[in-house]
Specification:
This protein is about 30% helix and about 20% strand. By secondary structure, it is α/β, with parallel strands linked by helices. The protein binds nicotinamide-adenine-dinucleotide (NAD) and zinc ion (2 copies).
Length: about 400
């Protein structure tokens, strides 16, 4: 089969790879019909997440049809599924409470040590996301082995096109969980940093969950325009001092909750960001935490901080004092995707949400290298890339 593979920092190549096979009774093989490139993939592409090896197959946003099943899979051949990016067993203590991205069993033993050293515990598995999260082959491929196929995949109806369903695999539930973590009360003012796919779905979700106002911060005009189209008030960080601007826009109170939908690759020329960038480049640090610092400082006293943006290491100059003294609540995590897919699928079926507005480019899988490059370098109009194998 053909698959998008990592060949080194900034180097993606579609190569011929061995077809996946059923290795465990609960496995299924899915033939991919659509797959997308995520902002999280850019962290791998840019070499800021460790544990990616040459020839690793990337991709964690995908859907398709079941073409083979192990004897304990509950799927049937021909069934159409969206596959959540977080791999979980469905049986451990964490899974029992639907904390799927904290599953204790889905990272294979041989890969557990890396994360255990860095974070104290092994992480759950993820498709196509480095050996830190299990070293599973990803979905930017013709075929994928899906473990625990009796619990992970979301079965979807045949009469809804891929474009409207694909984002159930990650970014729609991620935006939804980001808004839930902001614990929105009716009429609240929410500030969202980042108008990439995750930020845009956080904005959409915040309004669905009762926000009165959403302030959207980014530096890319095309993305800010999309946020405005969703009803948010756009603020360009290249033109406005964010802390002053937010104070003015909220009558000196500050936003009730803040969402950092950017994570470890914050842009901009603030002093802290330049220092972080140098540390990241020379391998002395992993995270450019400028946005998280800013969001904590901007949040109103007693407010909530929600962090869907991915971080990987340790951050200097973290405003611990502001977090504590203002009595803020901080919630974060890789998304427990499958916890939300039924509810969101229902909203898609009822036409309450149509996530396909996000798609800016469709490419054949063979063009994956061009997709990655443009999604990183031309953010103004490359909002979301969907590829067909
Ligand atoms: N928690 C999860 O499970 C989960 C799932 C998916 C994605 N993510 C993470 O969410 C983040 C966003 O993903 P995406 O696909 O939207 O990425 P993206 O790269 O497309 O978007 C990031 C946006 O942030 C903007 N930005 C950068 N620096 C900024 C700054 N200083 N101030 C304001 N805006 C700034 C960029 O212009 C860009 O529009 C990434 O870190 C990704 O890894 C997390
Ligand atoms: Zn993703
Ligand atoms: Zn589990």
């Amino acid at each position: 089969m053909r698959a998008a593979t990592f060949q080194g920092k900034g180097h993606i190549e579609v190569r011929q790879m061995p077809d996946p096979k059923i290795v465990n009774p609960r496995d299924a093989i899915v033939e991919v019909t659509s797959t997308a490139i995520c902002g999280s993939d850019l962290h791998l592409y840019d070499g800021v997440i460790p544990g990616v090896e040459k020839d690793d197959i990337l991709g964690h946003e995908f859907m398709g049809r079941v073409v083979d099943v192990g004897r304990e899979s509950t799927l049937t051949i021909g069934q159409r599924v969206v596959v959540p990016f977080t791999i979980f067993c469905g049986q451990c203590f964490q899974c029992a409470d639907q904390r799927y991205s904290a599953c204790d069993n889905s990272c294979p033993v041989e890969n557990q040590q890396v994360a255990e050293k860095a974070f104290g515990y092994p992480l759950a598995g993820m498709f196509g996301y480095s050996h830190l999260t299990g070293g599973y082959a990803g979905g930017q491929a013709e075929l994928v082995r899906v473990p625990y196929s009796d619990v992970i995949p979301q079965i979807v109806p045949d009469d809804i096109p891929d474009d409207r369903l694909l984002f159930l695999s990650d970014i729609l539930p991620t935006g939804w969980m980001a808004a839930l973590n902001a614990e929105i009360e009716p009429g609240d003012t929410i500030a969202v940093w980042g108008c990439g796919p995750v930020g845009l779905f956080s904005i959409l979700s915040a309004f669905h969950q009762g926000a009165g106002r959403v302030i959207a911060i980014d530096g890319v005009p095309g993305r800010l325009a999309m946020a405005e189209g969703l009803g948010a008030e756009p603020v360009n960080f290249h033109e406005t001092d964010i802390l002053d601007g937010l104070m003015q826009m909220t009558g000196g109170v500050g936003p009730d909750a803040v969402i950092d939908a950017i994570g470890m690759e914050s842009h901009g020329f603030s002093i802290d960001n330049i220092a972080d960038r140098i540390k990241q480049t020379v391998g002395m640090g992993q995270d450019r935490a400028h946005v998280l610092r800013q969001a904590i400082l901007a949040c109103r006293k007693g407010g909530r901080v929600s962090v869907p943006g991915v971080y990987g290491g340790k951050a200097d100059l973290f405003p611990l004092g502001a977090l504590m003294q203002k009595g803020l609540q901080l919630r974060t995590g890789q998304t427990h995707v499958r916890r939300y897919t039924e509810e969101l699928l229902d909203m898609i079926e009822r036409d309450v949400i149509d996530p396909s507005f996000l798609i800016s480019h469709r490419l054949p899988l063979d063009d994956a290298a061009r997709g990655y490059r443009n999604f990183r370098d031309h953010q103004d109009d490359w909002i979301k890339v969907v590829m067909q194998p």
